[in-house]
């Protein structure tokens, strides 16, 4: 059976006044696959996410998204929660906007928050949550609709290393339940190798894939997997590819 595709970019080019265009970019995300995009600032990582989400219009090329049920979920660099609303209301809104009745939306929102470890913080407002908790609310909001494609734009960049590690493990656990395709943007090479099955290094000058490296090992990762020689070797391979890609910066 042929592998199903969750989303793809084909010959996509994006251009803005005053800077070189990005592309042409070709990218295929398989259903249920976890892909990490790494590259220098300005290499087009976030642009690729916006293209996949339909938030950016390319100058040329084709974009496909094979949404079969829940569509696309997007988690931004900051949680972007409504400050006046409690956690369950923030998450329920994603369902209400699709036409789900409020009582059902709130029930499903509570279930999603419980799944990310916040079942006891349903009534908490954003100012009452730590950075990691707020990001969990954002994850619950993105996942509550059951998306086929989940896009994450450096969601853990502002968090401490211990919280980031915990959230990576949580994300793997959530992925095992419904197996959405995930595209994860990060500057952190070790984070990319830990999370993803495939790491794509984008060229600093063109935004095109410079290298594609597969990460070994099962998902979710077993305990102490960061000490595995295969993990360390893959981290070094991605770091070398990233250094080479950054060497192409103008």
Please outline the helices and strands.
Elements: E1 5-14, E2 22-30, E3 34-38, H1 45-53, E4 60-65, E5 72-75, H2 87-96, H3 102-115, H4 131-143, E6 149-153, H5 161-178, E7 181-185, H6 189-195, E8 198-202, E9 209-214, H7 229-246
Parallel strand pairs: 3-7, 3-8, 5-6, 6-7
Antiparallel strand pairs: 1-2, 1-4, 8-9
Helix pairs in contact: 2-3, 2-4, 3-4, 6-7
> Largest sheet, described in full?
6 strands, mixed
Mean pLDDT: 91
Order of strands across the main sheet: 5-6-7-3-8-9
Termini distance? Answer: 44 Å
What is the CATH architecture annotation of the largest domain?
Answer: 3-Layer(aba) Sandwich
Percent in strands = 15-25%
Order of helices and strands, N to C?
A: EEEHEEHHHEHEHEEH
Described by the principal axes of the CA atoms, the overall outline is globular
Low-confidence stretches: none
| Percent of residues in helices | 25-40%
Structural class: alpha/beta
Could you tell me the CATH topology label of the largest domain: Rossmann fold
Quickly count the domains.
2
- Treating each run of at least 4 consecutive H or I residues as one helix, how many helices? 7
Radius of gyration: 18 Å
CATH superfamily of the largest domain: P-loop containing nucleotide triphosphate hydrolases
What's the number of extended β-strand segments?
A: 9
């Amino acid at each position: 059976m042929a592998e199903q595709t969750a989303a793809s970019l084909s010959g996509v080019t994006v251009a803005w006044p005053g800077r070189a265009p990005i592309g042409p970019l070709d990218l295929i995300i398989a259903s249920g696959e976890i892909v990490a995009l790494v590259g220098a600032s300005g290499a087009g990582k976030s642009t690729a996410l916006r293209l996949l989400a339909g938030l950016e219009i390319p100058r040329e090329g084709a974009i496909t998204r094979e949404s079969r049920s829940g569509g696309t979920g997007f988690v931004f660099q900051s949680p972007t929660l409504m400050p006046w609303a409690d956690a369950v209301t923030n998450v329920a809104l994603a369902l209400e906007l699709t036409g789900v009745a409020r009582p059902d939306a709130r029930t499903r929102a509570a279930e999603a928050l419980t799944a990310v470890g916040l079942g006891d913080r349903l009534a908490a407002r954003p100012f009452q949550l730590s950075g990691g908790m707020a990001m969990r609310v954002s994850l619950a909001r993105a996942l509550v609709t059951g998306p086929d494609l989940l896009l994450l734009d450096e969601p853990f960049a502002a968090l401490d290393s211990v919280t980031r590690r915990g959230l990576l493990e949580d994300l793997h656990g959530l992925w095992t339940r419904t197996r959405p395709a995930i595209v994860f943007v990060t500057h952190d090479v070790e984070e990319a190798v830990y999370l993803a099955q495939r790491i794509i290094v984008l060229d600093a000058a063109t935004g095109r894939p410079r290298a594609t490296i597969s990460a070994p090992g099962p998902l979710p990762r077993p305990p102490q997997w960061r000490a595995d020689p295969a993990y360390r070797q893959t981290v070094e391979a991605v770091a070398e590819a990233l250094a080479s890609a950054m060497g192409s910066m103008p």
